Amino acid sequence: MPAKRLGSLINPLNNGELADIVRRARDMGALVEALAQSLPPDEAGSLVAANLRDDGELVVICRSPAWAARLRYEADTLLDAARRHGAVANRLTIRVARP
What we know:
The protein is 52% helix and 18% strand. By secondary structure, the protein is α+β, with helices and mostly antiparallel strands. The chain has a single domain, classed as 2-Layer Sandwich (GMP Synthetase, Chain A, domain 3). The protein has a 3-stranded mixed β-sheet with strand order 1-2-3.
């Protein structure tokens, strides 16, 4: 497949499944960044990913069970940061990344 055609497929400005995936990945990355900025640096470094489900559940994935326990104390901070980012978040779930 020519490089120009591939670039067209993954261009988030185009419509299509692949473009939707690229847009979604960028949105999730921006959400993680917004959440990380609301936390102290050591806690921010524990974030792996974040997602907002259609029902308003903010799912945060962190590096270890110990970090998950610490981040649960920051639930209000994380929800507020997600809302400031433009998300309609009404509850938080924290999960641990698999190694």
